[in-house]
C-alpha cells in the first residue's frame, strides 16, 4: 500500500526514489594516507516514508570479500529545513551510525556529524550531488583536523534501473 504524501513534502531526495545499480569505490585503508581503491557493484532501492518527509534506502553491496545489506534512513525537519541521515549496517543490526545532518543547495546536499573512527574523533561529511538526476553521486569523507582537510574514502555512482 502506498503512503499518501503531504502537500508540502520536501523534494530534495526525489531524484533517488526508485531502483538503482551502484558503482562503489572505497579506500582500502581509511585515514592512513593510502591511495588504493577497492571497486565493487551494488543495488539500491529507495521509497518515500513519513508522508514524504522521509525515505528509506535499501542497499545490497557486493564487496570483494562479502555481500552486505544496509539501509539509509532519512528524515526531514521542516523547522530547520535539514535532513538527518542514519546508516544501518546489516553486519551490526543493533546499532545505527550517528546521523549526519544538513541540507541541499542548488542540487548538492552536504551533511555532517561528529563521530569516532578506530578510537579517533573525526568529522564525517556526506555529499549528495543530484545536479544530474539521472546519474546522481554520493561521497563520504572523514576529517581528523576538525574539518580543515577532508579525505574522501567512499564514492558511489548511481544508474537508474529501467
UniProtKB/TrEMBL annotation:
Protein name, UniProt field: DUF1579 domain-containing protein
Taxonomic lineage from the root: Bacteria, Pseudomonadati, Pseudomonadota, Gammaproteobacteria, Alteromonadales
Amino acid at each position: 500500500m502506498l503512503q499518501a504524501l503531504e502537500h508540502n513534502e520536501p523534494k530534495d531526495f526525489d531524484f533517488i526514489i526508485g531502483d538503482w545499480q551502484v558503482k562503489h569505490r572505497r579506500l582500502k585503508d581509511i585515514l592512513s594516507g593510502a591511495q588504493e581503491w577497492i571497486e565493487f557493484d551494488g543495488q539500491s532501492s529507495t521509497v518515500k516514508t513519513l508522508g514524504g518527509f522521509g525515505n528509506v534506502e535499501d542497499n545490497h553491496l557486493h564487496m570483494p570479500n562479502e555481500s552486505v545489506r544496509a539501509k539509509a534512513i532519512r528524515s526531514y525537519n521542516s523547522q530547520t529545513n535539514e535532513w538527518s541521515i542514519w546508516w544501518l549496517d546489516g553486519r551490526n543490526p543493533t546499532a545505527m551510525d550517528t546521523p549526519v545532518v544538513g541540507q541541499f543547495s542548488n542540487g548538492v546536499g552536504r551533511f555532517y556529524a561528529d563521530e569516532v573512527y578506530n578510537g579517533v574523533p573525526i568529522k564525517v561529511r556526506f555529499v549528495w550531488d543530484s545536479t544530474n538526476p539521472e546519474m546522481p553521486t554520493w561521497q563520504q569523507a572523514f576529517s581528523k583536523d576538525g574539518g580543515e582537510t577532508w579525505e574522501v574514502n567512499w564514492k558511489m555512482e548511481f544508474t537508474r534501473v529501467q
